[in-house]
Amino acid sequence: MSDEEKTPEAPLAAEAKTDQVPSSPDSPVIASATTESERESLPDLPATESFSGSEPESEEADGAAILDETMSVRRLPRGLIAQILAPEDETPVWIDPKRLGRQSRRDFLLFGAATAVSAAGVWWLLPDGTKQQWLSPAAASRIDSIEARFGVTGQRRERFLGRVLTFDDDVAEALYSRNRRVRAYRPSDVTPLRNNYNGRTPTGGYLVSWKLTLSGLATGKETTLTAGDLSRFPVRDQVTRLCCVEGWSAVAFWSGIRFAELLRAYPPAPAARWAAIESAVNLDGAGQPDPYYVSIDLDTALHPQTLLATKQDNRPLSLAHGAPLRLVVPMKLGLKNIKAVTSIRYTADEPPDYWNERGYSKYDGL
């Protein structure tokens, strides 16, 4: 048989046979070529995108091709894409110049009037001392006289500020519940408690003759208790947080008698609604006597976490923290937690409060 009469399968068979023999550096390299019949025997591959091989003639043609491809892949309607890519309508609006001028003048007058009213309101709310720092007493008095003609007087200012100051007190009092307790901690959670007397710390000379005076009782008589009398009450422990109005707080371990148990042992008069608590041994910054006094309502006094503490960290109270008896009322700010208590008086009307007389609120609830 001649070479021309050989079938096309012969080279394929020879190539398959050659592939089975491992090649070595000494063996000749056999090159194989895919014939037309071999290509026909290959499996069909998935159809791929065909390209014409020609580049877009311009950038517009390129953008149109990208848009067509996006529409074909994401199947977005052409109208929606045109709406998204369409420029915003910038049709000008004509306004009558006279109307625009009148509106501008009106807005200017309204702005000026609002500014004047705001300035007058701020001036009305300022304390008298601050006004005299900004202006001379004569000028400040002249402005006050002008405001008084419109009924804006100092008396109304004080009443207004009083209502604003007591608004949060009203909310806190409305939300108060004797059954709602503040969080209690473990003794291991105790943190250092600073000495925060508003003046000097009292010396210990008063401890020898210290007594607790109770008045406004149901018996109509005044009663005096000593430290020995208080020791007959059950001692309760509690670890609570004391929150100061200055922004700091500390967790403290207190021991003492519940105020509610004192009220049961020495009940107040039937009409009593308040307790006026005083420390007659308090000192001011110069070391002079400056009695400190707070007021709490009897509902707060009856709260199970309101204590008359005699110990801190299982030790008798130190002078810095109110020896020998202090009020612990954790649902109130620290300024209500009066130290070195010397008297408790029950009243029907709300009694005065030291810091309320100096601009702070009365209720001071958390």
Distance between the termini: 114 Å
Q: Mean pLDDT, as a whole number?
A: 79
Shape: elongated
What is the CATH topology descriptor of the domain at 187-358? Sulfite Oxidase, Chain A, domain 2
Strand order of the largest sheet: 2-1-10-5-6
Written as H for each helix and E for each strand, in order along the chain, the element string is HHHHHHHHEEHEEHEEHEEEE
Give the C-level CATH assignment of the domain at 187-358.
Alpha Beta
Radius of gyration: 46 Å
Q: Indicate the CATH architecture of the domain at 187-358.
A: Alpha-Beta Complex
Strand content: 5-15%
Number of helices: 11
By helix and strand content, what is the structural category? alpha+beta
Helix content: 25-40%
**CATH level-4 homologous superfamily of the domain at 187-358:** Oxidoreductase, molybdopterin-binding domain
| Uncertain residue ranges | 1-57
Structure, explained:
It is a single chain. With 366 residues, the chain is an alpha+beta fold. Among the domains are: 100-175, no CATH class; 187-358, Sulfite Oxidase, Chain A, domain 2 (Alpha-Beta Complex), CATH 3.90.420.10. 35% of the residues lie in helices and 14% in strands. The protein has eleven helices and ten strands. The protein has a five-stranded mixed beta sheet with strand order 2-1-10-5-6. Strands 3, 4, 7, 8 and 9 form a five-stranded antiparallel beta sheet that branches. A hairpin with a 2-residue loop joins strand 7 (307-312) and strand 8. Mean pLDDT is 79; it is low at 1-57.
